[in-house]
Amino acid sequence: MGISVAIILHGLLYAVLVAVLSLAAWLLRLVLRPGPRWSSALRVTPFVIAAIPYVGFVATLLWANYAPPTFIYSSVFGQSAGSDVSALRGQSDASNDFRNVFMSFSTSDDALKRTLETLRLERAETLKAADLVPLPGNIMLPDWWTAQRCADRTVFIAKNVHRWDDIVVTQCRSDATVYVQASWID
Fold first, then answer.
1. If both were cysteines, with which of 42, 43, 70, 170 could 147 make a disulfide (CB 3.0 to 4.6 Å apart)?
2. Using CA atoms, how far apart are residues 106 and 89, in angstroms rounded to an integer?
3. Vertex 169, ends 162 and 95: CA angle to 5°?
4. Which strand (E) or helix (H) includes residue 24?
């Protein structure tokens, strides 16, 4: 389910919630009719209460899609990017039931080895043409993603690490860049 579909479905749920709260407020107003008139703040209260979960949901989806590369790095590797990591780039495509992450960065061989050991990634014996895990739908790769064109590369794969279903790390020695793709599907 794409981000726009998830937001539309959640918007429909929001509309139902507003309708129920507005009906409850209208019934309460009928019961309290002889008393003082409601202020403007009391009239919009059902809308504000109903909007809180919707705003939270949309904010969560937007953060998952537009988070900075340092946050993406720490969510994949479970640690913050150290001083050894430079030229960090990241892109995320997320919805309420899947997330795909693409990263590239430069680091020393020793720092990469330490990071790979913490995740228990295994070296892939055969290199696939694209070095990509299965993706749902047509995901556009970032312009800077060139892992599949790297001639001198080593590929490491892990499954079910942290919350990620698949993690593929491609160490490209010809351009001194490490490419990472991670995905999870609910």
1. 170
2. 10
3. 55
4. helix 3-31
- Domains of the chain, residue spans: 3-65, 69-185
Q: pLDDT by residue (tens digit) across 34-86?
A: 666 656 666 677 777 777 877 887 787 788 778 888 888 888 888 778 888 88
Taking each helix axis as running N to C, give the angle between helix 69-77 and helix 109-119, from 0 to 180 degrees, rounded to the nearest 10. 50
How many helices (H) and strands (E) are present in the chain, helices listed first?
4, 6
How many residues appear in the chain? Answer: 186
pTM of the model as a whole? 0.68
The string of pLDDT tens digits covering residues 109-151 is 888 888 877 777 777 766 554 455 555 556 677 888 877 778 7
**Residues with Cβ within 8 Å of residue 86, at least 6 apart in sequence:** 105, 106, 107
